UniProtKB/TrEMBL annotation:
InterPro entries: AAA+_ATPase (IPR003593), ABC_Ni/Peptide_Import (IPR050388), ABC_transporter-like_ATP-bd (IPR003439), ABC_transporter-like_CS (IPR017871), Oligopep_ABC_C (IPR013563), P-loop_NTPase (IPR027417). It is a peripheral membrane protein. This is ABC transporter ATP-binding protein. It is found in: Cell membrane. The lineage of its organism: Bacteria, Bacillati, Actinomycetota, Actinomycetes, Kitasatosporales. Its main location: membrane. It comes from Streptomyces chrestomyceticus JCM 4735.
Length: 497
């Protein structure tokens, strides 16, 4: 007996699925080393979604590729990356190949480049399954069809034989997600999964990722520059700037109680449905610094409107973001640290206490993003942009004749418009010609002159096919049985676009 209590093992649910500690990534460059990632640390647990946001060049994708060991040779990577307690940095390519797609998988930004163009979608799914599982080809094929159905691809058995170029952008992204969850990984890294997709397809892809998380229980690291995507999908957010994390916390803490001017600027530059009308978005002037020659001090200091001399001298480390409040007696309540909320800013305490109002940080550069309590700033009538209702009517200029030009005939007076004509600015629709001409009564004259006088022309095939809309599967089906324009070649209901 040593007299020491044995430490109970950490529960599997509380243990992080992925733990990244002090990650640094440096690329060789012509003008010196490029410090792409500097001191990134985060932990994500099973079933949790961590959103990593930042503008282009902030190091988001480089950090994701370092986690999976996909960086090119010659890249210097140091720090720690643990998957279920196993260190990944330093493993060889053979060991990482057994982990990629099995313990941790990735959804790439461009699905067309992630898929092999000369193999069908189904064959690529079958290969991904058989590499990590002992399955027959038939069993792997059936599982591939199930995965395609799980991510919402219609008619999965037939579409499994299609090639990547035969899929739309959203369908290719669904296929890549199906490949990522094929072996039920512990962690899914999604690198800009909604880029270059319209808003409707973006929502569908996020729903597919939610389904993947529910089915596999995997942790998701979502990398994006769209704050709107993170707001409705992630549990926690980490903001990066110039390769360094500058603020981290829960979604509510970051979106309603930001402590870093860069985060406040990003939120002010994001359109909001609940924001005041007529108030311009907040611009963040300037450009990010060069990662080969970082300025001394905080990298955001040259663009920060509230930077002080200390900001240009020393770079702040991420520290717990305090939350203070002013009581009615003008006394300041004790500072308390928000759980998991960190910010790398010398003036974060002033922002938290209200001494430096968030609404005033970018107010002088084009907008007032938020009020002091994190809600949209109140809007006065003077702040409203001119609308059709309150716009001053344009009056004729003095000395300018409004009549007809000399030597021209004045236009004839037009009749007063009908009350019905003012209901819509569009002209009434042109009546469509009948699909079949009216029958002509037989006459003796037409019988005798039928050999010399041509009869009325019968409607052409194009006229018969006019009722068929743009959703009809093929031109050959138009005019046959008056099929619905929503029908497809096999008679099933056409899915929404």
């Amino acid at each position: 007996m040593t007299g020491q209590r044995a430490t109970a093992p950490e529960p599997a649910a509380a243990r992080p699925a992925l733990q990244v500690t002090d990650l640094h990534v440096t690329f060789p460059g012509e003008h010196g080393p490029v410090h792409a990632v500097r001191g990134l640390s985060y932990a994500v647990r099973p079933g949790e979604v961590l959103g990593i946001v930042g503008e282009s060049g902030s190091g988001k994708s480089a950090a994701a590729q370092a986690v999976l060991g996909l960086l090119p040779d010659g890249t210097a990577v140091r720090g720690s990356v643990e998957l279920d307690g196993r260190e990944l940095l330093g493993l060889g390519d053979a060991a990482l190949s057994r982990i990629r797609g099995n313990g941790i998988s990735m959804v790439f930004q461009d699905p067309l480049s992630a898929l092999t163009p000369v193999y069908s979608i189904g064959s690529q799914l079958v290969e991904a399954l058989r590499v990590h599982q002992d399955l027959s080809r038939k069993a792997a094929r059936d599982r591939a069809v199930e995965l395609l159905a799980l991510v919402g691809i219609p008619d999965p058995r037939r579409r499994a034989d299609a090639f990547p170029h035969e899929f739309s952008g959203g369908m290719r992204q669904r296929a890549v997600i199906a490949m990522a969850i094929a072996n039920e990984p512990r962690v899914i890294v999604a690198d800009e999964p909604t880029t270059a997709l319209d808003v409707t397809v973006q929502a569908q892809i996020l729903d597919v990722l939610r389904t993947a998380r529910e089915v596999t229980g995997a942790a998701i690291v979502l990398i994006t520059h769209d704050l709107g995507v993170v707001a409705g999908f992630a549990d926690r957010v980490q903001v990066m700037y110039a390769g360094r994390p500058v603020e981290a916390g829960t979604v509510d803490a970051i979106y309603y109680r930001p402590r870093m001017p860069y985060t406040i600027g990003l939120l002010g530059a994001t359109p909001r449905l609940d924001g005041p009308t007529g108030v311009p978005l907040t611009p963040v002037h300037g450009t990010p610094p060069s990662l080969t020659a970082l300025p001394p001090g905080c990298p955001f200091a040259p663009r920060c409107p509230v930077a002080v001399p200390q900001c240009h001298e020393t770079e702040p480390d991420p520290a717990p973001a305090v939350s203070t409040a002013v009581t009615p007696s003008a006394a300041v309540a004790p500072a308390t640290a928000a759980p998991g909320h960190t910010a790398a800013c010398h003036r974060s305490e002033e922002i938290a206490s209200g001494a430096l109002p968030r609404a005033g940080i970018f107010a002088g550069v084009g907008g007032t993003p938020f009020g002091g309590d994190g809600t949209p700033a109140p809007q006065t009538h003077a702040d409203r942009a001119p609308t059709r209702a309150n716009r001053t009517p344009r009056t004729p200029q003095q000395g300018v004749t409004q009549g007809p030009r000399p030597g021209t005939t004045p236009p004839a007076p037009q009749p007063a418009p009908s009350p019905l004509s003012t209901l819509s600015p569009r002209s009434p629709p042109r009546p469509s010609p009948p699909s079949h001409p009216p029958p002509t009564p037989p006459s003796s004259k037409s019988k005798t002159s039928s050999s010399t006088t041509p009869s009325p022309a019968a409607p052409s095939s194009s006229a018969r096919s006019a009722p068929c809309g743009p959703w009809t599967a093929s031109a050959s089906s138009c005019g046959r049985g008056r099929r619905s324009p929503w029908s497809v070649s096999r008679g099933a209901a056409r899915p929404p676009p």
